[in-house]
Amino acid sequence: MKNLISILSLTLVFTLSVNAQILENSTLWKIEGNGLKQPSYLFGTIHITCDATIEEDVKKALDATGQVVLELDMDDPNLQAQMMQGMYMKESKTLKDLVSDEDYAAIDSLFIKNMGMSVQLMQNVKPFFLTATLYPKLLDCPMQSFEGELVKIAKEQNEEVKGLETINDQMQVFDDIPYEAQVKDLVRSAKDNLAYDKAMFAKMLKVYKEENITAMIEMMNDENYSAVADYQDKLLDNRNENWIPKIGEFAKDQPTFFGVGAGHLAGDKGVINLLREAGYKVIPVME
């Protein structure tokens, strides 16, 4: 179930801010200053991957901190039930209300080919989440999760895992974005049986491995994802802004390891720049 939550989270970072300052190639950053007695660390994850090995510099940061804060509290026992409650469209809408018969048939064929079942069984699920259920099919390997590995290490170190937002906060994003806008990418994916998405995700994994967080912004503004690009304030920018005071509170309480999607790091409205604007010194950890 935690893997499902991780892939659903990926929908929230698929489109990023266009105006990006160039940052060093690093997914690990140290947070200092602005009243902090000890440094905290900010790590950019990718929510699904073929290899979620935690590198030595990240392990050192985990050892130097006393709690792990992710986008969501991944070990909250109520997370699964809350997520399930928020996956369904309001007002009894279904997928057939949003697309033509031809497009519905294409989506149904996509699910039969890739999931072994008709989309009819899930046609009242929000389109973003229908798309998210297909994300493991973008990989040519068993799916791994950085968040899962971070939770495992936190438990081994007897540390708490907390969240910057609740599952209800995340689910609200997909109530604020029209379902008609959400379904556009799903229709496009259906018409080429995920071919474009697979190529895109392979490129994303390569860029992530290179730790080029600025390049992630450039590639994710692909015009083929324009449907979500129109709502990147809700998908990304507003959430980043909401996180900054929470990051400050956690870090002032004790040295904290923050793990968020790497797409949140760079850009003028990215977490790194917003933390700097709030008075913190944020520097890359280069090893």
From TrEMBL:
<dbReference type="Pfam" id="PF01963">
    <property type="entry name" value="TraB_PrgY_gumN"/>
</dbReference>
<keyword id="KW-0732">Signal</keyword>
<protein>
    <submittedName>
        <fullName>TraB/GumN family protein</fullName>
    </submittedName>
</protein>
<dbReference type="InterPro" id="IPR002816">
    <property type="entry name" value="TraB/PrgY/GumN_fam"/>
</dbReference>
<feature type="signal peptide">
    <location>
        <begin position="1"/>
        <end position="20"/>
    </location>
</feature>
<dbReference type="InterPro" id="IPR047111">
    <property type="entry name" value="YbaP-like"/>
</dbReference>
